[in-house]
Amino acid sequence: MATIDVYDLNKKKIDVMDLSDEIFNTEVREYLIHEAVKIQLANRRAGTVAVKNRSAVSGGGKKPYRQKGTGQARQGCIRAPHYPGGGVAFGPQPKIYNLSMNKKARKVAIRSALSLLFKGDRITVVNNLDLDTISTKSFAKVLTNFELAKTLLVIEAENKNLELSARNIKNVKVLKADALNIFDVMKYQNIMMTQSAVKKVEGALTI
Hints:
Blueprint: E1 2-7, E2 13-19, H1 21-24, H2 30-44, H3 103-119, E3 123-126, H4 136-145, E4 151-155, H5 160-166, E5 172-176, H6 182-187, E6 190-194, H7 195-205
Parallel strand pairs: 1-3, 3-6, 4-5, 4-6
Antiparallel strand pairs: 1-2
C-alpha cells in the first residue's frame, strides 16, 4: 500500500498516511484522461451562438423591381445574403455539444490523474487547512513554506476562512472533495489535500 507524509501548516511532519493503491497508485491511462477532459470542456459550451439567415431577417417580402426590362439581374428579395442588411449565408446556429462518458470510465480517469500526480510527488497532505482568521498574506506564506505554485486545495467541507484567504492568490483554487473533477486535477501542477478530504475522495472513487 502506498503511503504519504502528513504535515501541519508549518510543514512539520506529524504523521504517515496510507493511501489506496487503486486510487493513488494505479495504472495511468492517459487516453481516458484525455477523453474525460475533452468531454468536460465540451459540456461547458453553451452552444447558443446564432445569426439570422434570410428567412429570419425582417422585411424584404416584396420583389425590389420587376423581373424584366431593367437591364439588371433579376432579384427576388432585398434580404438575400448579398444585400446590405440581408441574412447570413451558412452562419452558425444553436448546437448541443454535450458528450457523455461511462461513469466507471470517468472514475478511472480521475484515479489515473491522481496517480499521475502522486507518482510525480505533486500531492501534499496536511492534517487540516483551518485558519484562525481571513488573511491572504498568511495563507500565501503557507504555500511558500511548501514551495507550491499553481495549487488545487481539496477540502472535505466548506471552509470560509480558507476560501476567502485563497481567492486572491493567483493560480490557487479551493475545491470540496465531492466536487473534484478531471479538468481541475490536470490544470493545477500540485494538489494539497486534508486527511479527511483524502478519505472522502477514496470513498467516492472506489468502484
